[in-house]
Amino acid sequence: MKFVLMAMTAVLLFAGQAHAQGRSRPDTSGGTQAKGEDPQKRMAREEAAAKAAMKNVPDSKEKYDPWKIGK
After folding, report:
1. Exposure on the CB side of residue 60, measured as CA atoms within 13 A
2. How far apart are CA 64 and CA 60, in angstroms?
3. What percent of the chain stands above pLDDT 70?
4. What does the DSSP assignment read for 3-58?
């Protein structure tokens, strides 16, 4: 009886993992991308957006110390 229960549990666990891996990635483009858009234009648009976002990141005034304890 224990063997059957363990086997059923293993089958359910592996089936759940296989189901999760088979899912497609959700569309995160926000619906702004046209289906026939040129990949080079899309790459240029994404790079321009990344550069604009990096301009909003402030420069650090102090050097980061990962070993610093406390404040």
Report:
1. 4
2. 8
3. 69
4. HHHHHHHHHHHHHHHHHHHTPPPP--STT-S-TT--HHHHHHHHHHHHHHHHHTSP
Question: What's the pTM?
Answer: 0.37
User: What kind and span of H or E run contains 2?
Assistant: helix 2-21
Per residue in 34-44, pLDDT tens?
567 799 999 99
Query: In 10 A of CB 42, how many CB atoms?
Result: 13
Q: Where exactly are the structural domains of the chain?
A: 1-56
Residue 63: per-residue pLDDT: 83
The Cα 48–Cα 54 span in angstroms is 10
- 4's tokens: 């059957």
